[in-house]
């Protein structure tokens, strides 16, 4: 970690100079820092999600999702962002611990980029993993402003034959959903994307102007079934699936018919491989899965429906020569291998000495029942408490969910470790987004090693906009 930090400091702003300085981590690497430039333009576009209905969206480079940005850990990524939208916008690099001024949160880390203006994001790409980039302005993500960011480690000895990025998104087919969607979920009804099939029924939706739209289409890489682009397999192949949940308010339970898979990373961080038949993935979470193509056929990856979906998420996995077979949907039943966070442990035990937290913060998550507001400790952003930490301190956050909905809590600028009382601390998993279920208490802790004001919030977009956010100030 100290070495990474050093590269961060050297690289930001003084790139030319940094290249001339002896940096220990570079000495080991055969390839020097590469500056990789991308142009990313946010603008108005239209999409049909593969169907015959067209509606307006906001997108990056006219695509839904935006282009996959793929770089290496020895790269410095430079993104020339242009805002051609009629509203201010920013780009956030979800999960990647970038320098604070590059984090893309309007009013916190930068002024929003005005219509017609540009902004240059530039940062080192560490560590390796699967990330998402998206607008952090208001509800813009729900209009289509998101894409995948993949960071490869050139020293990784990856053995898979194919590598697929699957970006999941919830849509309302009438008007695209998002802030202008006409249909809203009523208060006090069960919602799709609630607690999941084996964890009991769903929660309650909010009431008031910020309640979420009714989604009726679930897209993979911008297309809905049967128009989704199939994953094509050959028997015997080993496949890496990078699943990114860019949805605004949908948690999925995913299963691939005819197969189990192995979970190898969560939020970009490697874990000890875990066999699974169902994957639960919340908004903002990413999972890397390994799949062995050992069962020729035409199989669907599907999501469990808990009440609202009219057009469920489905994606065919088709073996060579099996294109004409009718696709088989997965069945969901009790007793499937459905690992949770406490079944995971770090791939390699941490070598850092364990530090007791210097600061503790209770984070009570509530709202929704009789109020349009969602809060942390009873307060909504921007009136919420600032969580302070000195640079280098370890901070413990104790989430206590007093509401009836799950909240995927996300911290910017850092990975946190999930406190797992049944494991020694060096085996705790690292994440940046963690689902806290209704009435559940979960604790995380992190080393405050990235200075600045960092946004910390629920990744349910409508909860975030209704106040469930605060600032972590590392100084
Ligand atoms: Cu939430």
TrEMBL record:
Signal peptide: 1-27
Keyword Signal: yes
Domain Plastocyanin-like stretches: 55-155, 212-303, 363-474
A Gene Ontology molecular function term of the record: iron-sulfur cluster binding
InterPro entries, per database record: Cu-oxidase-like_N, Cu-oxidase_2nd, Cu-oxidase_C, Cu-oxidase_fam, Cu_oxidase_CS, Cu_oxidase_Cu_BS, Cupredoxin, CuRO_3_CopA
Keyword Iron (UniProt): yes
PROSITE patterns, sorted: MULTICOPPER_OXIDASE1, MULTICOPPER_OXIDASE2, PROKAR_LIPOPROTEIN, TAT
CDD domains referenced in this protein's UniProt entry, alphabetically: CuRO_1_CumA_like, CuRO_3_CopA
Keywords for this protein: Copper, Iron, Iron-sulfur, Metal-binding, Oxidoreductase, Signal
Domain of life: Bacteria
Any Pfam family matching the protein: Cu-oxidase_2
Protein name: Multicopper oxidase
Species, as recorded: Dethiosulfatarculus sandiegensis
């Amino acid at each position: 970690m100290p070495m990474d930090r050093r590269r961060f400091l050297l690289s930001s702003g003084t790139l030319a100079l940094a290249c001339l300085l002896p940096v220990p981590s570079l000495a080991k690497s055969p390839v020097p820092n590469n500056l990789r430039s991308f142009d990313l333009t946010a603008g108005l576009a239209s999409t049909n999600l593969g169907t015959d209905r067209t509606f307006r969206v906001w997108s990056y480079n006219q695509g839904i999702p935006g282009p996959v940005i793929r770089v290496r850990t020895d790269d410095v990524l430079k993104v020339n962002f242009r805002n051609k939208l009629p509203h201010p916008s920013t780009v956030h690099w979800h999960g990647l611990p970038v320098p604070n001024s590059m984090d893309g949160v309007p009013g916190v880390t930068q002024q929003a980029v005005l219509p017609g203006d540009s902004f240059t994001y530039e940062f080192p790409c560490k560590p390796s993993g699967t990330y998402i980039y998206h607008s952090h302005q208001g509800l813009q993500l729900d209009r289509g402003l998101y894409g995948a960011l993949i960071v490869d480690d050139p020293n990784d000895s990856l053995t898979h034959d194919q590598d697929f990025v699957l970006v999941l998104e919830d849509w309302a087919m009438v008007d695209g959903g998002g802030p202008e969607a006409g249909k809203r979920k009523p208060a006090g009804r069960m919602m799709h994307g609630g607690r999941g099939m084996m964890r009991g029924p769903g929660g309650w939706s909010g009431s008031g102007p910020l309640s979420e739209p009714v989604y009726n289409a679930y897209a993979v890489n911008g297309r809905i079934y049967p128009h989704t682009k199939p994953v094509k397999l050959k028997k015997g192949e080993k496949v890496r699936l990078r699943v990114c949940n860019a949805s605004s308010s949908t948690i999925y339970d995913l299963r691939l018919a005819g197969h189990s898979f192995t979970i190898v990373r969560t939020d970009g961080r490697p874990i000890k491989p875990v066999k699974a038949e169902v994957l639960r993935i919340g908004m903002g979470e990413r999972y890397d899965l390994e799949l062995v193509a050992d069962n020729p056929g035409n199989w669907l990856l599907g999501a469990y429906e808990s009440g609202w979906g009219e057009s469920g998420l489905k994606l065919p996995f088709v073996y060579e020569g099996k294109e004409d077979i009718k696709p088989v949907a997965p069945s969901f039943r009790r007793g499937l291998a459905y690992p949770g966070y406490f079944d995971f442990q770090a791939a390699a035990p941490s070598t850092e000495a364990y530090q007791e937290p210097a600061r503790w913060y209770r984070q009570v998550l509530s709202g929704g029942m009789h109020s349009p507001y969602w809060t942390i400790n009873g307060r909504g952003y921007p009136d919420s408490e600032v969580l302070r930490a000195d640079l280098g301190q370890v901070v413990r956050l104790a989430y206590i969910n007093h509401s009836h909905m799950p909240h995927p809590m996300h911290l910017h600028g850092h990975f946190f470790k999930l406190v797992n009382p049944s494991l020694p601390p060096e085996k705790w998993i690292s994440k940046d987004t963690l689902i806290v279920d209704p009435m559940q208490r979960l604790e995380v802790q992190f080393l405050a090693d990235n200075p600045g004001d960092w946004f910390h919030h629920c990744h349910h977009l409508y909860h975030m906009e209704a106040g469930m956010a605060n600032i972590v100030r590392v100084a």
